[in-house]
Design brief:
90 residues; elongated; 74% helix; mainly alpha; DNA polymerase, domain 1
């Protein structure tokens, strides 16, 4: 996700958030929200993006946290595999 383009972020927003939140896709495009930026969004930054509805901000943040956890878990699993492989060949 850290390497996502703006288009990838918009696709994620439309797929994982409600229709009401997906309506903010244009805001994400206008502000060039890439995956690298997405993971650093917080409530105040979402307000600056024009997302005034608190419930919508909470939903978007919840989905961001979920994808961050999933991505972090995948990275940990990859590191563990690399360690196990290197231990096997050492």
């Amino acid at each position: 996700m850290y390497l996502w383009s703006v288009a990838d972020v918009v696709k994620w927003l439309k797929r994982h958030c409600s229709e009401e939140c997906a309506a903010y896709a244009e805001n994400f495009v206008q502000h060039e929200i890439t995956g690298k930026v997405l993971v650093r969004l917080n409530d105040n930054k979402l307000i600056r993006l024009g997302i005034d509805n608190a419930a919508n901000r909470k939903e978007i943040l919840r989905q961001i946290y979920k994808i961050r956890l999933k991505t972090d878990n995948m990275e940990i699993m990859d590191l563990e595999r690399q360690i196990n492989i290197s231990m096997y060949y050492d």
